[in-house]
Amino acid sequence: MMHRVAAAVMVLFAWVVPMAAQTSNDVVWVQVEAQPSLRQATESARSYAANLEDVNGFALPGGWYGIALGPYTRRDAEIVLRTYRRDRFDPA
Predict the structure, then answer these.
(1) Can you give the pTM of this predicted structure?
(2) What are the DSSP E strand ranges found in 10-88?
(3) For residue 35, which phi and psi values (nearest 5 degrees)?
(4) Is 77 helix (H, G, I), strand (E, B) or coil?
(5) Cα-trace Rg, the chain
(6) Which pLDDT does position 84 carry in this prediction?
(7) What is the chain's percent helix, strand, coil content, to nearest 5?
């Protein structure tokens, strides 16, 4: 089950979101999804958090809410992405 959850989230990951860019150890977040309401985002974040660590939510421009994993160094985020993609992470 955990591998399926991990694989699906990684399939959904479109990018690594930089939050600070100062050194080679940049702090980044891996965005999983975005929701149009706080209620939907909270429900989604709770669902991910039941199976994953480091789940966080953010208010995004335009009234949307992002669900992301992190914070990570850029290198660690790339490893997380590769691992989940390799394992075909599936949240269902």
Answers:
(1) 0.67
(2) 16-20, 27-35, 55-59, 65-73
(3) -125, 150
(4) helix
(5) 13
(6) 80
(7) 40, 30, 25
